[in-house]
Design a protein that fits this description.
The structure is a homodimer of 265-residue chains. Chain A is built from six helices and ten strands; from the N terminus they run αβαββαβββαβββααβ. In chain A, strands 1, 2, 3, 4, 5, 6, 7, 8, 9 and 10 form a ten-stranded mixed β-sheet that branches. Chain A is 25% helix and 28% strand. With 265 residues, chain A is α+β, with helices and mostly antiparallel strands. In chain A, strand 8 and strand 9 form a beta hairpin.
């Protein structure tokens, strides 16, 4: 009887606590966010750390996937746990168990209806292009090295063309898992901010929107690079966007320059 | 006959050019400097790049080995080649073929008697200890994270005890390949500078000497950490040094905090 009572207590719905975790990670050593058998992933490492600590087998939900090599500065995950460990201790103990290239940089208890993916309102991504001749080996996994000529003025003007609500089919990966937010069959997204700036030897692109299709930021950056290489006018960006055809746009920029900066709720 | 002449020309001793290459590398993805079958190493990658470019099978000689995970800022290698490629083109083409986490940051043609290891006069190493509570995942492979209490004043005073000529047996790895410079059977080395400083959240140790035994810098840092943890006086460092016994000294500090900064000739 005692065992039954304990079991009933452990599984009591009222005891479930919902957590919002903010994660930073160096994506270089991982096969992306999403759990995959036999490969190190951010989601998999987080699930392992939680199971080691609490004994609970759960799959933390991210705000969206990041691909292999893509970095996180403020990825958000939600996870429901029955543990009684106080928040601060849970946070510290998970960091102790996680690989040092993944850190929980923020943690809070949130209402049961919070879901990192379904509740996300806005996301911001950053892409770093290193323009210097020789790129430090310590930056190699953290920027895209492009030392060749680029017409940065043309690129700057082209960034504005994607602001607003558009069908981003031309910038969506052609694959069946193309969406990182739950709006099936629609490739319409709204971009609030799209900006390019110079910081020393780096050209930095930052974009904020209500959601992003798979590879969308890397495809936009690929298009910006194409425009920069050929000194094309900003109309080229608008033309490709209007075509709603992936095959007319430029190649996907490499993963290692991309950062998921933050998610707003 | 033409083929024979060409062969003779290719192998003509007078055509051999000796190169000094200065290398920077992120050691995280490599099994150290020294070539090993089936494992990525700095020396192996450099040899591969040279062979791909010139067709010449050579083994570039480093100023000394660095262990797996140890980084290079100014490692020096020498290599004799028969290629007629101009220096600047050779440098650029090798960087193009090397992994992006290894860069040749300096290159020059040197007299035939230059050897990166035998001619080295001084070396400088740096060790980075991160003292903050949560270490950025982007620093994880580049510092040793030690957020626990340390008496930094005691550590600072202990750094002076190793300056000068000493037998460093207490700080030498107990293995048959213990030496990174060609003074067989002697563990005597001269340290010119040994300094500890704070830079924000980092505690940085820098040491310059005429040569270093295998693991010597990491063992000195291990000893400094031991002194810091227990608030021991600098005499502890001198006592352990005088014992000439590895077993009385502290554990080896982790590889990822260590950098080979420069080699003087």
């Amino acid at each position: 009887l005692a065992a039954q009572v304990t079991t009933a207590y452990t599984l009591c719905w009222a005891c479930v606590r919902n957590f919002k975790l903010i994660l930073a990670y160096d994506g270089a050593g991982f096969a992306g966010w999403q759990v995959q058998p036999g490969k190190p992933t951010i989601q998999g490492e987080l699930a392992n750390a939680i199971e080691e600590l609490t004994g609970e087998k759960v799959l933390p939900q991210g705000s969206g996937r990041t691909d292999a090599g893509v970095h996180g500065l403020g990825q958000v995950a939600s996870v429901a746990l029955q543990t009684v460990i106080p928040l601060e201790n849970l946070w510290r103990a998970l960091n102790h168990r996680l690989p040092a290239t993944i850190r929980i940089v923020g943690a809070e208890e949130v209402p049961a209806d919070f879901h990192a993916r379904y509740c996300a309102q806005q996301k911001t991504y950053r892409y770093r292009i290193y323009r210097g001749d020789i790129c430090s080996p310590f930056l190699a996994n953290f920027v895209y090295h492009h030392p060749y000529p680029l017409d940065e003025a043309c690129m700057l003007r082209a960034t504005e063309a994607i602001v607003g609500e558009h069908d981003f089919t031309s910038f969506a990966a052609v694959d069946p898992e193309a969406r990182d937010n739950p709006q099936p069959r629609s490739n319409v997204r709204t971009i609030y901010q799209s900006a390019l700036r110079r910081e020393g030897e780096e050209l930095i692109y930052e974009v904020t929107g209500n959601g992003f299709l798979h590879h969308m930021v890397r495809n936009i950056v690929g298009m910006l690079l194409w425009i920069g290489k050929n000194s094309l006018p900003p109309e080229e960006m608008a033309r490709v966007l209007a075509a709603r055809d992936r095959s007319v746009a430029a190649a996907t920029a490499p993963a290692q320059g991309l950062y998921l900066v933050s998610v707003q709720y």
